[in-house]
Amino acid sequence: MIGLAVAPLVSVWTYRRWLYLLLGGALFFPFLLAALVALSMLRFRTIADAPAGLASPIQLTALLIATVLVAATAALRPVAALQAQVARTLLGGRLAGEPAARPTGSGTRLRAMVWLATHFVVGFAVSLATMVLLTETGLLTISPVLSDVETQLTPLPGDNRWLGPPLAFLMLVAFGYVLALVGAGLARLAPPLLGPSAADRLAAAQARAENLTERNRIAAELHDSIGHVLSVVTLQAGTAARVMDSDPEFTRQALSTIAEQTRAATEELDHVLGVLREERPSSTPQRSLSDLATLVDGARAAGVDLTVEQTGELDTVPAVVSRAAYRVVQEALTNALRYGSGQVDVSVCVRTDRIVVHTTNPVARTPRRPTRRTKGGHGLRGIEERVSLLGGTVHAGLEADQWQLEVTIPWKEPG
Amino acid sequence: MITVALVDDEPLVRAGLRALIDAEEGMGVVGETDDGSGVLDVVRRTQPDLVLMDIRMPNMDGIQATRLLLEGLSTPPRIIVVTTFENDDYVYGALRAGASGFLLKRSRPEDILTAIRIVHLGESVLFPAAIRSLAESSPSATTTASRAVASLTDRESATLRLVARGLSNSEIAGEQIVSPETVKTHVSNVLAKLGARDRTQAVIAAYDAGLVRPGGDG
Description:
Distance between the termini of chain A: 70 Å
Strand order of the largest sheet of chain B: 2-1-3-4-5
Helix content of chain A: 55-70%
Strand order of the largest sheet of chain A: 1-2-3-5-4
Number of helices of chain B: 11
Oligomer: heterodimer
Shape of chain A: elongated
Structural class of chain A: alpha+beta
Number of helices of chain A: 12
Number of strands of chain B: 5
Helix content of chain B: 40-55%
Order of helices and strands of chain A: HHHHHHHHHHEHEEHEE
Order of helices and strands of chain B: EHEHEHEHEHHHHHHH
Structural class of chain B: alpha/beta
Largest sheet of chain A: 5 strands, mixed
Strand content of chain A: 5-15%
């Protein structure tokens, strides 16, 4: 309870946002000063003649002009880009997780201008408040040792000068809460003004979809090309093995052909894979059902209590299906460790034209605290996607305290 | 000797097939061309029993070339289409166009030679299971095929179903408890009624007409 109350004061975001606001205020100052000077020059001979006071018409007009000038600078693309960047870093909040707004979006420029003006004006106010607060609390703190005359300067009631320090402390705390509030409000305001609009999101999604489609095309072309080379190589090798004695010339030629063709194909693979890669390549080889034993041993060593039942010929499972099945078992074991009671029953059943992987784990009454999700794991979502692509089905769900996962993947019987 | 002509745009494929077939007793390559457009010419010149036809070629593809041969000649050779990928939509199209069977380029050499012999003899269908799964993924039921199939007698339909399962004449004779000659007669009648050049075409017609269902027993 106390933790909750004190949280805004000790959160790093409160102070980061304070910094953000001070920055805004500091940058606003030249604009304000320039406007003030210019106006005064127009109205009066020298600045000295200009009326002082915080809310005189000259100063309010100057404030307005300065705000407009500030907004105008945000119309420049580099400025808009920079302010978005700074806001993400110092404001945090939801903005940090969003994609960037399109610089050419229709409302983007206007929104950016409004933001910069808001940032600077609010920042200026906060900067002024900070200055005043620091002065006052400073005075209050040392008030016990001030003379009577100097005490007049402080906002102390009467001459209870010993109230000074505690009052200063309260003022600081109060200011801390106000800062946190203003900062949070600003962070809340940022996404609508600096973040992507619905149209921006749609454009980003469409661009991504087009990009992925093109990647798919490149991948398909690659498969075609490699498939062709592999067929040629298979034919050359098979024939050469057969006619080695009767036609040694062909055999010799075939061997160098095979070497050239496969070299060229691997180069092409190298090149295209470099282009297509989005994730960092894994340093471990791709795992399939033949690695199941290692996976199981590892899980048992980590404390999972599991039974494994395997039927059918693993050799007859196509490589891509075998890899997918491995991931299913891996996911089940990971989940058992993370969320379950640490006990799993796994069954892998290979039939003539499909494989069925079934895992059951009892759900823990009090699940262990989930560890932070490591990057690169796709989890159930990825498995569903892959299985669906392979023409299989996934059934996952809770049944009477047991988490059941059943994955079926078919394939064509070899002709 | 079985004479073979090779039609493929990849010289390495032709070289491989040539070396394989020439080294085999009872077979030999008599002609080659690197595009479908040259097929009529090479067949007229060399009169092969059988043509190994690639599907993807630059100017004229294997399907068109197959049609060209079958329509342009009074006694065309048997055609086996040779393809890289089994999943190609083209494969079933080539079969429909009149090819007697198909081969994958990656087939084992002995399988290639066996395929040539089977198609040349015409006694059984090449890769019936593969044809079945190709039929599965293709739209079917043309009305001409349906009408033709409807004209078959019960015996003839039963024989056709067994042919579609890949049985040879002697195997069908065993199934139906009749002599192989009787089976041959039935098969000839079926081919004639369906207007099919060979057993493979009859099977395609059967799938097209829905007489045999790819998924079921047929």
